[in-house]
């Protein structure tokens, strides 16, 4: 009798434990909520995920182009503001030619004339930027629906997107499988982890193309925000923004952001590189590249107090000062995005690396793993 009694108590206790752990995982999954983001005119459905954390700050990402849709973080008074340019729905992103928030690839940035040679064979990529190839081509990663998995076991909100790019897509060899995981922790730190493989030799250099305006007000320019880039050198460009292959010191030039400087301070200087880029649209050679995650850049918006640190394990950082925004692109709330109202900081390999033997290699072979970690850390000062 006693034995039966103890068995009954044991079973009841186990039942309660199972219920509790089920309830626990249910709560964890609430760190990520999902909803429809609309259906594209070609019938493809897009899902929007919201990543929550304990400070009520949120990140939104969607399955079209594994896009980073919004980042709402507090100013120094605790008011949440969206620090990313973007669109209200999936169709807005489908019509977008400015790459707002997308994961771009296979090759983020430019490849001269869309040509490269790998193992003695020449490849011709899609030409979509004058005579050059930009951000993976017309139908690159940004035009694809990625599959999404919510990482329910993660202690904080986390979603992994996957895209399998078939052999020959946009002219690239090999079938490439790329995973990009967005994780949003309680300290307002957004981590992007990329992991890629191929079944034949190829090149791979994806990046995240978020347009940031830390003021939370896309009507104000970024020219009074303070930027630091942890780089003593940059890669100068020629016509069509193609890197020349040189690695030049920033010292004494408008490209010196080694200490925080107003973005607008020298942007209109009489400088050939600034004229070629129509402002800043260059790659910086990050100091001390050793494949570990290091501080790459900081941005500070004095009126709101918002501060962003960018950390990455990549060798380069493209700083683009929104020079091609001209009021024709309409985004969230129908707002026309004006000249230099956002900046991009794209962690990457150097532009046109496949044609510049002195730049770090972007070749990926079967059996190797492509990986990238880039972190956007938000706080206030
Ligand atoms: C490029 C710019 C380009 C922008 C939007 C940036 O990464 O450097 O030249 O206009 O993306 O495509």
Short description:
This protein is mostly beta strands.
Please, could you describe this protein's structure?
The protein is mainly β and 381 residues long. 10% of the residues lie in helices and 35% in strands. The protein is built from 3 helices and 27 strands. The protein has a 9-stranded antiparallel sheet with strand order 11-12-13-14-27-23-22-17-20, with no helix packed on it. Strand 4 and strand 5 form a beta hairpin. The radius of gyration is 22 Å and the shape is globular. The N terminus is likely disordered.
Please give the number of β-strands.
Answer: 27
Low-confidence stretches: 1-28
Computed CA radius of gyration, to the nearest angstrom: 22 Å
Structural class estimated from helices and strands: mainly beta
- Oligomer type: single chain
Q: What fraction of residues sit in β-strands?
A: 35-45%
Largest beta sheet: strand ordering: 11-12-13-14-27-23-22-17-20
Task: Give helix and strand order, one letter per element, not per position.
Answer: HEEEEEHEEEEEEEEEEEEEEEHEEEEEEE
Distance between the termini: 68 Å
Indicate the overall shape: globular
Mean pLDDT: 93
Number of helices: 3
Ligands present: beta-D-glucopyranose
Helix content: 10-25%
The description of the largest β-sheet is:
9 strands, antiparallel
């Amino acid at each position: 009798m006693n034995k039966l009694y103890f068995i009954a108590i044991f079973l009841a206790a186990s039942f309660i434990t199972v219920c509790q752990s089920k309830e626990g995982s249910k709560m964890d999954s609430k760190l990520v909520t999902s909803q429809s983001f609309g259906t594209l005119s070609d019938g493809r459905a897009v899902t929007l995920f919201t990543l929550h954390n304990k400070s009520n700050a949120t990140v939104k990402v969607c399955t079209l182009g594994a896009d980073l849709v919004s980042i709402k973080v507090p100013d120094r008074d605790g008011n949440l503001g969206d620090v990313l340019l973007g669109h209200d729905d999936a169709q807005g992103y489908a019509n977008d030619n400015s790459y707002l928030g997308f994961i771009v690839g296979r090759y983020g940035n430019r490849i001269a004339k869309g040509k490269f040679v790998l193992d003695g064979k020449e490849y011709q990529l899609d030409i979509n930027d004058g005579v050059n190839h930009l951000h993976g081509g017309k139908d690159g990663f940004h035009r694809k629906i990625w599959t999404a998995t919510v990482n329910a076991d993660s202690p904080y909100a986390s979603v992994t997107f996957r895209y399998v790019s078939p052999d020959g897509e946009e002219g690239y060899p090999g079938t490439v499988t790329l995973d990009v995981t967005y994780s949003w922790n309680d300290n307002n730190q957004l981590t992007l982890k990329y992991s890629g493989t191929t079944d034949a030799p190829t090149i791979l250099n994806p990046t995240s193309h978020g347009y940031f305006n830390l003021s939370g007000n896309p009507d104000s320019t970024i020219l009074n925000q303070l930027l630091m880039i942890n780089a003593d050198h940059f890669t100068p460009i020629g016509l069509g923004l193609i890197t020349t292959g040189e690695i030049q010191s920033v010292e004494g030039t408008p490209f010196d952001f080694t200490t925080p400087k107003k973005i607008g301070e020298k942007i209109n200087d009489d400088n050939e590189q600034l004229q070629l880029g129509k402002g800043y649209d260059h790659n910086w050679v990050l100091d001390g590249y050793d494949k570990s995650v290091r501080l790459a850049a900081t941005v500070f918006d004095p009126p709101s107090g918002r501060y962003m640190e960018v950390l990455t394990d990549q060798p380069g950082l493209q700083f683009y000062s929104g020079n091609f925004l001209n009021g024709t692109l309409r985004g969230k709330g129908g707002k026309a995005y004006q000249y230099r109202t956002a900046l991009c900081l794209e962690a990457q390999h150097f532009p046109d690396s496949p044609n510049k033997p002195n730049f770090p290699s972007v070749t990926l072979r079967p059996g190797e793993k492509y990986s990238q970690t880039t972190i956007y850390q938000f706080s206030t000062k």
